[in-house]
Write a structure and sequence with these properties.
With about 240 residues, the chain is α+β, with helices and mostly antiparallel strands. The protein has 8 helices and 6 strands, in the order E-E-H-H-E-H-H-H-H-E-E-H-H-E. Helix 1 packs across helix 2. The longest helix is centred in the first third of the chain and has 14 residues. The two termini are about 55 Å apart. The relative contact order is 0.08.
Length: about 240
């Protein structure tokens, strides 16, 4: 029936246990959306999509299971019942269920908002590779298709970007710099000829300083560009 709402589950193909419970009027379409959103990295539930991504990397997919059929009036209670039955701690759901996502279908913008957007766009050049904001046309149908931006316009945009750069002339605090270095650093290990780990380092820089090596040499060894540097061999952890 058209008014049917299905309570579905995503089952782990390896362990045979349910990992997620949801509701949908079209479970097959919702299942496809889970997979496509994972591939496109559109995360609204990071734990669920990390699990699906791990399965996909192993050439596996979650199994779609229809748990129950209900009406549009009582699906919230049914979804809560199933999540409670399985246990929220055993699932990748973010809440106990029964929460209706906001529906923006057919949303109408207020005239005030339309006027505001119109004022922001008025007099500004349009990008060639985007549709016309009023005509919604791409490619050769776009009035700006094939037009080249003048050098004056490019220079004006460059100055505008520099003028509105909030970080211009500012220096990051030492704590922030160290934090960024730590986030972007890759731990490495000093190894012997058999590949056994002799010592671990938090970053290539730490190994470089401690062993007195040339800057960048540790990275090149880890990437395979060098076999060794001053007799030392490294690999990424």
């Amino acid at each position: 029936m058209e008014n049917n709402v299905y309570i579905y589950g995503l089952k782990c193909p390896e362990k045979g246990i349910l990992r997620y419970v949801g509701k949908s009027k079209n479970p097959k379409s919702r299942y496809s959306a889970h997979l496509s959103h994972t591939k496109a990295k559109r995360y609204d539930n990071i734990h669920l999509y990390r699990w699906i991504a791990k399965l996909l990397r192993n050439n596996l997919k979650p199994e779609l299971v229809i748990l129950d059929t209900c009406s549009n009036e009582n699906w919230k209670e049914k979804e809560k019942e199933w999540i409670t039955k399985i246990g929220l701690d055993n699932l990748l759901n973010m809440n106990e269920g029964g929460i209706q996502p906001p529906d923006c279908t057919g949303r109408l913008w207020s005239q005030e908002y339309k006027n505001k957007m119109s004022e922001q766009r008025r007099g500004k050049p349009l990008w060639i590779d985007t549709p016309h904001p009023m005509l919604g046309k791409f490619g050769e149908d776009n009035p700006n298709y094939g037009q080249k931006r003048s050098k004056e316009f490019c220079e004006r945009m460059r100055k505008h970007a520099l003028k509105n750069n909030g970080m211009k002339g500012k220096k990051l605090p030492k704590e922030r710099i160290e934090q960024m270095i730590e986030i972007n650093s890759k731990p490495v290990a000093l190894i012997n000829n058999d590949g056994d780990i002799i010592k671990e380092y938090k970053s290539q820089k730490q190994a470089t300083i401690e062993l007195g090596l040339t800057a960048g040499a540790v990275t090149r060894v880890c990437k395979g560009e060098y076999k060794q540097t001053k007799g030392y061999k490294f690999k990424y952890l």
